[in-house]
Amino acid sequence: MAYAKTRLMYVSLVVLGALCLYFSMYGLAPFKDEPFVFKKERGTFLQLPDINCRQEPPFLVLLVTSSHEQMFARTVIRNTWGKEKNVSGKRIKTFFLLGATASKDLSKVVAQESQRHRDIIQKDFTDAYFNLTLKTMMGIEWVHRFCPQAAFVMKTDSDMFVNIDYLTELLLKKNRTTRFFTGFLKLNEFPIRDKHNKWFVSKYEYPWERYPPFCSGTGYVFSSDVASQVYHVSDSVPFIKLEDVFVGLCLEKLKIGLEELHSEQTFFPNGLAFSTCRFKKIVACHFVKPRNMLSYWQALENSLEEECPAV
Ligand SMILES: *[C@@H]1O[C@H](CO)[C@@H](O)[C@H](O)[C@H]1NC(C)=O
Ligand SMILES: *[C@@H]1O[C@H](CO)[C@@H](O)[C@H](O)[C@H]1NC(C)=O
Ligand SMILES: *[C@@H]1O[C@H](CO)[C@@H](O)[C@H](O)[C@H]1NC(C)=O
């Protein structure tokens, strides 16, 4: 009898011990990896563009998120709205943001492209869709470290049409120099808790009920001082893989409010049917395929003198 009792106790202890070990491992694992904090000093630059911002400060720097495979989209942007140009005597420069890939061939091609065009900013994090926050923060770090002399920065994507002339005109009219942030304002957004949605965010990733005010990641514009300020607070706000929400969290912490650039809508994150007169008065339009980019851009360039009916 005594022997059976001892054995039962022994087995219970072993089971209890195993359970403790299991829960401590799985319960503590997330803290071991610290996934919730952005490490701002992490990673090294693999490619840097050829620009001396101190000598020739640009008025506007465009940072375009891109991936290795999107070579054609980059070529089209370089030949259309991303062309280096001066608008009202203001210098505009476009750069592409890339991460790193395991493919040796693609890495080589991108390194060659970078040598040739000198317009690629690349760091050694894995280039993946849900690493967009790292990509955006690389661009912000680059402005902070290498180009704080720029007056304004726009972060946008490679499937966007950007009307540089109108953006410059509106920025000059707005006459703001610091703590300015604009785009398509999203003031009342909630995390999507449906597991099948592309934008699903678990309560574990983001436990709060609503997002801070932010601007659609398809295209937002800010005075360059915001880059340094966002960079400085980026490791003290919760990390989230949605880059636009992450920047929103930084802005909330900095108490930088979002502002409209114009009384009319100028940012179109959901796309807009093309017409020359319509596109003369917009800043950014989403879902523009590379093959349409060139024809839109040429139509706009050819219609500079053309009168449009007043809206
Ligand atoms: C823009 O102006 C600067 C000097 O003001 C000049 O060096 C540069 O070549 C111009 N760029 C273009 C594309 O005209
Ligand atoms: C993002 O990049 C980091 C650093 O290279 C990598 O460890 C991580 O797996 C990447 N995330 C995704 C979703 O691929
Ligand atoms: C721009 O703002 C500054 C003050 O911030 C003011 O002195 C200047 O007159 C303004 N310029 C225009 C064109 O409104």
Automatic annotation (TrEMBL):
InterPro entries referenced in this protein's UniProt entry, alphabetically: Glyco_trans_31
Enzyme class: transferase
Keywords: Glycoprotein, Glycosyltransferase, Golgi apparatus, Lipid metabolism, Membrane, Signal-anchor, Transferase, Transmembrane, Transmembrane helix
Reactions performed catalytically: a globoside Gb4Cer (d18:1(4E)) + UDP-alpha-D-galactose = a globoside GalGb4Cer (d18:1(4E)) + UDP + H(+)
GO cellular component, one term: endoplasmic reticulum
One GO biological process term: protein O-linked glycosylation
Pathway: Protein modification; protein glycosylation
The EC number(s) this enzyme carries: 2.4.1.-
Chain ranges passing through the membrane: 7-29
Key word Transmembrane helix present: yes
Compartments reported by the entry: Golgi apparatus membrane
Pfam families for this protein: Galactosyl_T
Gene3D superfamilies: 3.90.550.50
Bilayer topology annotation: Single-pass type II membrane protein
GO molecular function: N-acetyl-beta-D-glucosaminide beta-(1,3)-galactosyltransferase activity
Stated family: Belongs to the glycosyltransferase 31 family.
Name used for this protein in its record: Hexosyltransferase
Protein species of origin: Ursus maritimus (Polar bear)
